Amino acid sequence: MSTRFSVFFRAAISPRKYNVGIQNLRDFHSGFMATDDFFRSRLDQMIDLKHPLAVLARRMPWADIEASIADCFAHQNRAGKSVNGSDLFGPTVAVVGAGVSNAGRPRLPIRLMVSLLYLKHAYNVSDEELVARWSENVQWQYFSGMEYYTPKLPCDATQIGRFRKILGEAGVEELLKATIDAAVSMKAIRPQEFEKVIVDTTVSEKAVAHPVDSRLLEIARYKLVKLGKELGIKFKQSFAQESKELRRKAAGYAHARQFKRLRRVLRRQRTIIGILLREIERKLPGLNLASDSSLLLKMTTLIQRARRLMQQKPKDKDKIYALHAPEVECIGKGKARQPYEFGVKSGLVVTHKQGLIVGARTFPGNPFDGHLLYAQLEQTKTLLESHNRKPKQVFADMGFRGRVAEEDNSDVEIIHRGRYRSLTRVQKRHLKRRQAIEPTFGHLKADHGMRRCWLQGAQGDALHVVLCAAGFNLKWLMRALVRMGLYFSPKQVLAWVNKLVAMITDGSVAVNGGQQRLAFAG
Q1: Helix (H) or strand (E) holding 439
Q2: Residue 155: which residues within 8 A CB-CB, separation 6 or more?
Q3: Distance (Å, rounded) from C-alpha 25 to C-alpha 45?
Q4: Residue 63 maps to a domain
Q5: Is 418 within the bounds of a domain?
Q6: Distance of alpha carbon 109 from alpha carbon 72, whole angstroms
Q7: Triad 42, 118, 382: Cα angle to 5°
Q8: pLDDT in tens, 384-394
Q9: Chain mean pLDDT for the chain
């Protein structure tokens, strides 16, 4: 066979020299090649199929995921627009761009893009680092559904952000639900465990600098001047040099705790913002810009935010802490090392026994914990609907006490330390695991990217928290596979051994001196 192969390999390079016809070569190749790509090795022959990520690639409900989010990527039925024209018979009106169009580049596989989102938050990498590592990591490519090693990037890094935005909050919740379904199907968790959950809240911080009045006022001045010049406004004075000096003085006065002088500097910075705003409002109508101009819309938004920033007081509510992210809120959780955090409040629900995340969402407006419990449990019930289970006992801290929480969740037993005397012995023992949710917060922030959110707007906050929870669950599933013995649970191993013994006894399997190795797949 080796001689025959070498002859035909040389003939494939120069068929005329060896007097071999092209048709004979095709016949040889079709009969000799065992795979559909002779010059590339399959990924399942290159990797360790017992690696947890490789096992998980075959256990995840990929078909269900694609079916649940396929509607988000379907071609839309457009209404089109009317175009006026003329022909030999007079003026005409035609509708252009109506209906469902198949134009454009084909989309990348949904499984590939979903896998990239899972891997991004499971290993806490940026979009750019994710695509670079994917092109080098054969385990990641096998998890993404690739059959052969691909040395090129799976997609451009910006496509991940667009895919995430198209999914929306409902779409990423389907990704979280898929991890829960996989845990049940692998028997890593029993559905009965969903009836006891732990609920708590934390702060998902936004990627903003620490808000200081003098810094925010200087940024507002700089952006007003820059955007005004782009629109064609000629300012009498931009106050660049004076603002630089005021910013330096404010930093020195704050460090020296000279607050009276600091307030005088801030007052002058607000005066400069007012001068610029009035000049822009005088000259803006004379530019004759279209009402739907993108620059005009940006300037209108910036004027509103700058005016709010100029007028807000230290004790006001709904203050602006970042010009590019007005949704940021100041939340105090009572931490000695960090009295105030700037972001959005996030709720989390984990199972009482094993700590699998079965609910994660954001709550803008910093509501009281007891008032958000109903909405948080509604999401959990939706995620567990396919398993015919819903939470019956909720273990929480003292923040979830109160009449509103009890009335809104009458079908759930809320157990917290404030009712300790009325609890049974079993409930007191189970309440001791209430703190088990705290390390989950720590891992989400340190290992899965929840410490700072870089996505834009309130929708970005909501997507980020759910995706971080999905990444945590993916790592949880990998640890569960290792704990269960990768391929089999103890019951499955025992059943396989019993079947093997029966086959040997019947004579259907012959073992020659113990040298025959039986292969089995997960």
Answers
A1: helix 437-447
A2: 108, 112, 113, 116, 131
A3: 27
A4: no
A5: yes
A6: 13
A7: 125
A8: 999 999 999 99
A9: 86
Element at 170 (helix H, strand E): helix 157-185
**pLDDT of 449 strictly over 70:** yes
CB atoms within 10 A of CB 143: 27
**Distance between CA atoms of residues 269 and 348, nearest Å:** 42
Residues 345 and 285 in one domain: no
Question: Same structural domain for residues 268 and 362?
Answer: no
Say if residue 285 is in the same domain as residue 199: no
Looking at 311, 340, 375, the residue that finishes a domain is: 311
Residue 322 CB coordination number (10 Å)? 17
Token pair 């005066």: residue: 271
Give the whole-angstrom CA distance, residue 465 versus residue 439. 16
What pLDDT score does 21 carry? 43
Pairing of strands 341-351, 393-395: unpaired
Per-residue pLDDT, averaged over 461-475, amounts to 97
Contacts of residue 478, defined as CB under 8 A and 6 or more positions apart, other chains included, come to 52, 53, 56
Q: How many domains does the chain have?
A: 3
pLDDT at 286 over 60: yes
What's CA 433's distance to the chain center, in Å? 28
Residue 288 domain-assigned (yes or no): yes
Q: How far apart are CA 293 and CA 459, in angstroms?
A: 24
Query: Mean pLDDT, to the nearest integer, of 19-42?
Result: 51
Residues 6+ apart with CB under 8 A from 188: 477, 480, 481, 484
At 102, the pLDDT band (50, 70, 90 cuts) reads: confident
Q: Rounded distance, CA 460 to CA 48, Å?
A: 36
This prediction's pTM: 0.82
Question: What letters, b where the CB count within 10 A reaches 16 and e where it falls short, cover 326-364?
Answer: bbbbebeeeeeeeeebbbbbbbbbbbbbebbbbbbbbbe
Q: 């300037």: which residue's tokens? A: 299
Shared domain for 388 and 239, answered yes or no, is no
Residue 245 covered by a domain: yes
3-state secondary structure 125-150: CCHHHHHHHHCCCHHHHHHCCCCECC
The per-residue pLDDT for 493 is 61
Residue that is written with structure tokens 């989950």 in the block: 440
Q: In the prediction, which pLDDT does 496 show?
A: 66
> Residue 273: what pLDDT?
96
230 and 305 assigned to the same domain: yes
Segments forming the whole domain that contains residue 429:
189-208+329-462
Rounded to whole angstroms, the Cα distance separating 156 from 90 reads: 49
Q: DSSP letter string over 301-333?
A: HHHHHHHHHHH--TT-SS--S-TT-TT-EEE--
Distance CA 189, CA 192 (A): 8
Query: Are 450 and 350 members of one domain?
Result: yes
pLDDT number for residue 519: 41
Same domain (yes/no): 406, 342: yes
In the three-class reduction of DSSP (H, G, I as helix; E, B as strand; rest coil), residue 112 is classed as: helix
